[in-house]
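[audit] Reproducing an earlier prediction to check determinism. Same input, same settings, fresh worker. If the tokens differ from the archived copy the diff job will pick it up downstream; this log only records the rerun itself.
[audit] input (163 residues):
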Amino acid sequence: MRNDDVLKSISYTLDLKKPDIAEICKLRGYEPTRQEMEAIFSDEKEEITKIDGTVVEKDVSHELTAHFLDGLIIHKRGRQKGKKPPPVELPVTNNTVLKKLRIAFTLREEDVIEILNSVGFSISGSELSALFRSEDHRNFRPCGDQLLRYFLKGLADKYRNEE
């Protein structure tokens, strides 16, 4: 899933504005540029041509996304006392987004399943646990765009309706 779509969805869920996103990134030691912040919410996507001739839309950097997700954990849960933060995970995959959001929102496995079920996506506990495994584990399963979209939609429904 595109990084800008992930950031837009999270900002909608938590009603975050551009300065809020920048402050969350700063919690993890990253100072986003004005252009990076504009790129998140821009409707005009810049196209780039790869070496093989394919044309793709330029996305928000993995670095910005990774720092935002780590900063979101600090924002929602606070800093761990006496522990140095782990290094930033790059590149950001759908599995990484799912893991970081699960940590930030303090969700248990049952909570994630309930959020997915609330938007019509059915998943078992064993299928879900495969998404949180290490990539070199034999039972690892990559998280698809559809599952992540449903999760972000369910998260938005849950947290925007609490207010």
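[audit] rerun output stored. Observation attached for the diff report: The CA atoms of residues 76 and 104 lie 6 Å apart.
[audit] end
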